[in-house]
Specification:
Largest sheet: none
Helix content: 55-70%
Structural class: mainly alpha
Order of helices and strands: HH
Distance between the termini: 24 Å
């Protein structure tokens, strides 16, 4: 069987990582844990925004 016949769909790793950080924020037991989780979410959002900007400037595919 060829790989193209498998129907593989690549996961959205950025979304998965952000969802993990949001879950950590929900489970935070202290202000420090919540703050650290929020900073991770903020860093991931910044990365995604920069990636989209870079891809738009270079007319590249955003998915890879």
């Amino acid at each position: 069987m060829k790989f193209s016949e498998w129907g593989y769909t690549r996961p959205d790793y950025s979304k998965i990582k952000i969802d993990d950080c949001k879950n950590m924020m929900r489970k935070a037991m202290s202000y420090q844990m919540f703050r650290d989780s929020w900073l991770k979410v903020k860093k991931n959002l910044k990365y995604i925004t920069e990636r989209i900007h870079y891809c738009m400037c270079c007319v590249m595919s955003v998915t890879g």
